[in-house]
Design goal:
The chain is α/β, with parallel strands linked by helices and 170 residues long. The protein is 41% helix and 18% strand. It has helices at 15-24, 47-61, 76-83, 95-112, 130-138, 149-157, and strands at residues 3-8, 30-36, 67-72, 87-92, 116-120. A 5-stranded parallel beta sheet has the order 3-2-1-4-5, sandwiched between helices. Helix 4 (95-112) links the parallel strand 4 and strand 5. Helix 2 packs across helix 6 (149-157) and helix 3 packs across helix 4. 32% of the residues are buried. Bound molecules: 4'-phosphopantetheine (PNS). Residues 7-9, 36, 75-77, 104, 107-108 line the site of 4'-phosphopantetheine.
Length: 170
């Protein structure tokens, strides 16, 4: 059974992430989407909500993919070893991603012997990132083209935090 591990923060999951899972699903028999929970880093959404949104988006957008979602804390290499994965799969939007993903893939190969497959983002999705979605949402921007419908529905149910007005002392 070929198994691909697709890790990320998914804070929140974007259309780019779902496209990556869908494309990896054509190459691997099973996909594990692993939500990184870094206890030292404050996330926007709770791990449970991030997981729930990915599950809903996958069921809606690529039900044919044999995917499961889990969260993990600790090293990706340890999880890759524990799950005995065939490969780690990451998306690359441009040279900045390529640079950092190349370095991470080298470290992960050293730690667990697993190769990382880098897939270029589909044209039209190269600008999409979770941080962009968070920033646009906080400013009241329309993010519906950047996120799966499940995330869009969720975002409509919560109120964006308004940026503090500029003034003395800011
Ligand atoms: O979506 P992101 O924020 O780029 O995802 C980052 C993630 C979770 C894939 C990365 O931070 C990670 O691999 N975290 C686990 C800790 C680890 O193994 N660090 C060393 C990477 S070489």
């Amino acid at each position: 059974m070929t198994l691909a591990l697709i890790p990320g923060s998914f804070d929140p999951v974007t259309s780019g992430h779902i496209d990556l899972v869908s494309r990896a699903g054509k190459m691997f028999e099973e996909i594990v989407v692993a939500v990184g929970v870094n206890s030292n880093k404050e996330a926007w959404l709770a791990p449970g909500k991030r997981t729930e949104l990915i599950e809903a988006a996958l069921a809606d957008r690529c039900p044919e993919v044999n995917a499961r979602v889990m969260s993990f804390d600790g090293l990706l290499a340890d999880l890759a070893k524990e799950l005995n994965v065939t490969a780690i799969v990451k998306g690359v939007r441009g040279v900045v991603d390529l640079d950092s993903e190349t370095m991470q893939s080298e470290v992960n190969r050293d730690l667990c012997g697993v190769e990382t497959l880098l897939l270029p983002a589909r044209p039209g999705l190269t600008a999409v990132s979770s941080s962009l979605v968070r920033e646009l949402f906080a400013g009241g921007g329309d993010v519906r083209n950047y996120v799966p419908p499940a995330v869009w529905s969720f975002l409509q149910s919560i109120t964006p935090k308004k940026p503090k007005p500029a003034g003395f002392g800011s």
